[in-house]
What we know:
Elements: H1 2-8, H2 24-31, H3 45-64, E1 86-89, H4 103-111, E2 116-123, E3 129-131, H5 152-158, H6 178-185, E4 191-196, H7 203-217, E5 223-226, H8 230-240, E6 245-246, H9 250-261, E7 276-279, E8 282-283, E9 286-287, H10 291-299, E10 303-306, H11 312-320, E11 325-328, H12 331-341
Parallel strand pairs: 1-2, 1-11, 2-4, 4-5, 5-6, 7-10, 10-11
Antiparallel strand pairs: 2-3, 8-9
Helix pairs in contact: 1-3, 6-7, 7-8, 11-12
Amino acid sequence: VLTYRILLTMPKDMDPLFLEKVDDEQQGHFCSRPCCKWCCKCCTPRCCLGGVFTFIALVGIFFIGPRFGPSKFGLTWIVGEKSPPMVISHGDCPCLPEPANSMKWFEYAASLGVDALEFDLQMTEDEVLVAFHDRDWDKLTNATGLVRETTFEEMQRSVDVSVNYDQYDGVLISPPSIESIFERFADTDIRFNVEIKTEVELKDKVAEKLCGLLRDYGVEGRMLVASFDTESLVAFRDRCGDKVATSGSAEETESALIPILLGLDRWWFHPGSLSVLQLPTEGAGFDLTDKKIIDRAHAHGMAVQYWVINDEAEMRKIIENGADGILTDEVEKLRNVIEEMG
């Protein structure tokens, strides 16, 4: 852009497009300059300056690199070089010591000193947001049918997430509302990572209700919103504005990763509005825990977190490479590894 603007302002009598003939003596004098020998075919100051400024621009791009549009909230999820990653409790697994998708589990995870609670979001028939992984009750509870076709009152009365836990035999434990989670933990330092799992057609209603709850409980700065679906994330961002950190949908994450993996992010990097990269350990044959990926993401102001890490060796590698967060079912194991590594 700088080169173009400079050339446009040069006098026309210095432009080869407006010259029918260049004086031989002037041409010889100009081309005798060492810095201009390579552009003597056009033999005009305009051409030579264009080449010089283009070279300067390319060097600047190589060393600085453009960054287009990432949300500034990624910085609030970067822990720093000398700090361990955030311990983020994964909220859905039959292996948990307390029933998944229940307040019992969130309370237990908080007692272990987690930095953030992760949970999935569904919406009931009467538009109450609840913490539950699947869109139906069939696999994880005693009930059947779709969450969106069940009222909140019906869910509290009949849906039990503790059916596989002998210690709660005869006790009905239903999924909590998102509001009850905020009400319980809003006054603590615990952060939240919610993944929107609802159908795409519900995106606007979900965005409106979730943004309203975040404002009401003052937890916008402690929230990270995720979804594999681009439309759901866009609806949330449009509703909440630039106030809440988001990770990327599958397509957005891929678009952010490809330039980094190919070493092209210094020239072109356009991750959109995502502010945190939430990654598996590998993808498309690439080791996504590579320190270079983490370092380049940090250079662009994005935090990097990994899911779902339950293996101790993987935990150690990810910690050594400088990740900002680890989602895990094995909260105690991860905390012990962090303590051992200092």
